[in-house]
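Why this split exists: single-chain examples teach little about how molecules sit against one another. For that reason, every record in the complexes split bundles all components of an assembly together and asks for one structure covering all of them. Below is a record exactly as it appears in the raw files.
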Amino acid sequence: MDIYLPIAELSQNVFVLFAMGAAVGFISGLFGVGGGFLLTPLLIFSGIPSAVAVATAASHIIASSTSGMLSYWRRRLIDVKLAGVLLIGGVSGSSLGVWLFDLLEGAGQLDLVVSFGYLFFLGSIGSLMLIESVKAMLATRRGKPVPTRRPGQHTWVHGLPLKMRFKRSKLYVSAIPVLGLGLGIGVLGTLLGIGGGFILVPAMIYLLRVPTSIVVGTSLLQIVFTMATASVLHAVSNQSVDVVLALTLMVGGVIGAQFGAQFGLKLRGEQLRALLGLLVLAVAVRFAFQLVVPPPDVYSLTRIAGAGP
Amino acid sequence: MRRTCAALALLSACLASPARAESLAVSLTTDTIHIGSNFVGADIVLFGIIGRDAATVSRSRPYDLVVTITGPRQTIVVRRKQRVLGVWVNTDSRTFHGVPGYYAAITNRPLQDIASEAAIVANRLDAAAVVAGTPSEPPAGAEVDAARDTRRPGDDFEQSLIRLKSRAGLYRMNAAGVQFLGQGMFRADARLPANTPVGRYQADVFLFNDGTLLSRASQSFTVVKVGFEQRTYDLAYTEPLLYGLLVVLLAVLAGWIGGVVFRRE
């Protein structure tokens, strides 16, 4: 059964879209990520114009992150002040991202930047995750204790000025890296159609030294709001958000996420991280191929908006 | 109404040709195509009649018909990738202003056997002629070839535009799409794919005999989104802020409902 997507202006099989949403939802429930890094490429490869794919994936990330965020909220595992400062950076980043997005689309280089962005960020994060988790697995097998983070340890980040106190996270750090992190995630999220949780979570743990228990909920809150801003900005500036596509994906995604989360309870932390690392790396490799392998057709068409009826 | 139109067309065709060439009256089976949520494309059928009377010259050869369907005009950028430092990058481009978003040429036998090159170019009877006749501009700094319009089959950008549009099902050639039903009546069948653009379409019918254009007629129709699809599209373009907020609200609601329904703790 095909469904007509009014903004993308083409028909897609509703079951394929639903399955795609469910599969990505399963992954996001399993690993506790938004799943944008999988969904956006999947949509692009299935023939949805990249502008629509990126803009619509943002709303899917909101849906899949909201239920997680609410459950952390109920357990009071969110540092609202930290999320607020991240958000100030995030909202500015989103605006910057949408501006860049329109600029690149006009110049015909959006696909290239999206490919490079995925290759670079997914490639590096994926490799890091994989290496770290394999080391952890080997260490446990040899019976050695896994080295844990020492709470008192400081990095260069803690030497910066403009310090703020975040009570919930028991942190006293400069606002600059927090704002910068939010800004970076905002730009990336808007430009690449990803929530950025897989970058934000490690950055908060290793760079800011936020306690692990607080990290996931706080990053989810930040992602929901950054992606909400991105959705609205995309809708206003390039009219690329397809509500029918978004809804179909969301329904699949929300259901898939629940099964993913249940399945995730059966796996150990480092196994999960290794799997996620492999997955992230696979997507990066797919983009690398696209950049290097000769395209089936070196020509492509883009319709300039506004010239239509 | 449609009958009146046909009668009027017939009348004007008669008046316009004192040499008593054949007249041509055509009618489409529909004048509006609706795009709803289950739209997977549409078939359009054009019926016509070749009018002859006692004064019409007798023809030794059979008639030929060319039906072209031209969709709404679009501005399209054709980009070409080249390998730069091992990576495939869009390097040059050309912008076509007012190229049809949909184009079909339907004939009763191969076009080359019906009309001369000059007639094909003059009446825009194939996609190459249509694209070559569209004003286009290379990006600033590139050389402009002034004599380009007359050249066939067109350069790489023009050919690629046609190839990619054809692959998307938006440019079509059908050398067996016109059927003669007897007594001067004929029908032409065309297919609009699911990704066909919204807007005004024109069907032009050309009657040929032995390579000579005898008569032509045209009829237009529109493709519109209806109901939910139309309202969604309108809202996205006229009230983008409201539309964006609605999408966000829907997403939050979906996430919240999912969380409540499958609550685990």
